[in-house]
Design a protein that fits this description.
Length: 358
């Protein structure tokens, strides 16, 4: 393995970030917080880069699954770090972050991919069966986790009892596990489209040593992101409080930090006329974000006896229903156009505006 591979920024940034945190340099000062934030974001980018290297080695659709699970691990780690650090709004961080991730993916990532791809190619084509499979699984999990808690009566408020949390967690895992089997074994052809344009040369898969190096650095990057985020959580909370915004904005910030790099990857795919890859990345992450994050957070909260809110308020339910409905219509024909993307981006703007100005 060449020396320049070890001097690449994706290798150096996670190592420097780890030394920065372990060395006790993350203290309560402006310079330290700025450096910590930059190293945190750099570690997120490095984690996704190494996940992409591994994904390139194993091919599709396994590549997008690895990316989705990578993002979910980041999300779970950040949520649990924020919840264990306490704070007045910790009880809603899991719900707010998962809801924000779904809204950012459905409206932001998919909307941007559809809009940018349509602006360049007018129309882009994908496997309609893939969108249907994703949305059937996603809608079921969303209702079970974010809406149904408002209407159960065993405990007052938008909560689940421990027994209900265990049942819903198992239901999410069964749905997600079945989806993975459909995506990788029984109906793999639903999620892979043969490209007509073969003029673009695709880089050769990475070597086995480089793949193992990326796997090790991926684990390091994930650990660094979790610990750095935990150290910076009071800063983020104080910032949200200082601008007078609701604590739900903390969830939006967490989701943005986690999803922004993957959003870039999905947009790059759309620019290369690979909208199927963009859909796999976006909806796969949305499904993993809810289907894996909620069970993981539920088990941690049951173990440590931490109460947390799952049910959404009516305003959020309306925005979620609108987003899912528009995505269903946008993916119903197997091809995209610029109108679908524009509407989804406006939905994203409405969501973020109503979070800041409720």
């Amino acid at each position: 393995m060449k020396l320049k591979n070890f001097l690449h920024w994706t290798v150096l940034v996670p190592i420097i970030s780890g030394l920065f945190y372990l060395g006790g340099f993350l203290v309560d000062s402006i310079i330290s917080n700025i450096l910590g934030g930059l190293l945190l974001f750099g570690s997120v980018l490095a984690a996704v880069h190494h996940a992409e290297v591994i994904a390139h080695k194993v091919g599709e659709p396994y590549g997008t699954i690895i990316l989705a699970i990578c993002i979910t691990i980041l999300e779970v780690g950040l949520i649990i770090s924020f919840m264990l650090s306490g704070g007045e709004g910790a009880i809603t961080y899991a719900r707010d972050t998962v809801f924000a991730a779904v809204m950012l993916i459905l409206n932001g990532i998919l909307g941007a991919c559809i809009w940018i791809g349509a602006a360049k190619y007018k129309e882009q084509f994908f496997m309609r069966s893939s969108g249907t499979t994703y949305l059937v699984s996603l809608v079921a999990i969303l209702v079970l986790t974010l809406i149904l808690p408002n209407y159960t009566s065993s405990i007052r408020g938008p909560f689940y009892t421990n027994a209900q949390l265990i049942f819903v967690s198992l239901a999410c895992l069964i749905i997600y596990g079945t989806f993975l089997r459909v995506q990788t074994v029984r109906h793999r052809n639903f999620f892979v489209i043969e490209e007509e344009d073969h003029t673009t040369h695709e880089a050769d898969p990475p070597s086995l040593p480089k793949t193992f190096l990326s796997l090790a650095l991926l684990i390091v990057s994930l650990a660094v992101v979790i610990f750095m985020a935990k150290g910076l959580s009071p800063v983020i909370e104080d910032f949200v409080e200082s601008i007078g915004s609701p604590r739900a904005l903390v969830g939006v910030i967490i989701a943005t930090v986690v999803l922004l790099p993957e959003g870039f990857a999905a947009i790059r795919a759309a620019q290369n006329n690979q909208i199927q890859t963009s859909i796999n990345l976006g909806l796969g992450s949305a499904l993993a974000s809810v289907g894996l994050t909620i069970p993981a957070v539920s088990m941690v909260c049951i173990w440590f006896d931490i109460p947390f809110v799952l049910g959404l308020d009516m305003k959020s339910i309306i925005l979620l229903a609108l987003s899912v409905f528009i995505v269903m219509l946008s993916l119903s024909r197997g091809k995209t156009n610029i109108m679908y993307g524009a509407v989804l981006i406006v939905n994203l703007a409405a969501y973020i505006f109503t979070v800041i100005v409720p």
